[in-house]
């Protein structure tokens, strides 16, 4: 069982184990639903940053296709060297 202490200002620190389970970050909003069984804590879904959105994306296939498309184009025979 996880416990937290209520401060004189009515604040409670959510234990780190719960923050990790809910993937709570600073600034996230949570909601409290009180019913006859107790209190349910929920995380509001927030918009993900571009880094969070693509953090687990597999780019390996994309990289292979990019390599194919970025190969040098054969423009024909070299005419000569450019003198500088």
TrEMBL record:
InterPro entries noted in UniProt: Repressor-like_regulatory, SpoVT-AbrB_dom, SpoVT-AbrB_sf
Pfam families documented for this protein: MazE_antitoxin
Keywords: DNA-binding
Descriptive protein name: SpoVT-AbrB domain-containing protein
SMART domains assigned: SpoVT_AbrB
SUPFAM superfamilies named in the record: AbrB/MazE/MraZ-like
Any one GO MF annotation of this record: DNA binding
Origin: domain of life: Bacteria
Keyword DNA-binding in record: yes
SpoVT-AbrB domain boundaries: 1-46
Species for this entry: Virgibacillus profundi
């Amino acid at each position: 069982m996880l416990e937290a202490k209520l401060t004189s200002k009515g604040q409670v620190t959510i234990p780190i184990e719960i923050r990790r389970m809910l993937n709570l970050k600073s600034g996230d909003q949570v909601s409290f639903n009180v019913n006859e069984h107790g209190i349910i804590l929920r995380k509001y879904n927030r918009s993900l940053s571009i880094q969070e959105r693509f953090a687990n994306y597999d780019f390996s296939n994309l990289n292979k296709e990019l390599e194919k498309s970025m190969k040098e184009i054969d423009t024909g025979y070299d005419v000569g060297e450019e003198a500088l």
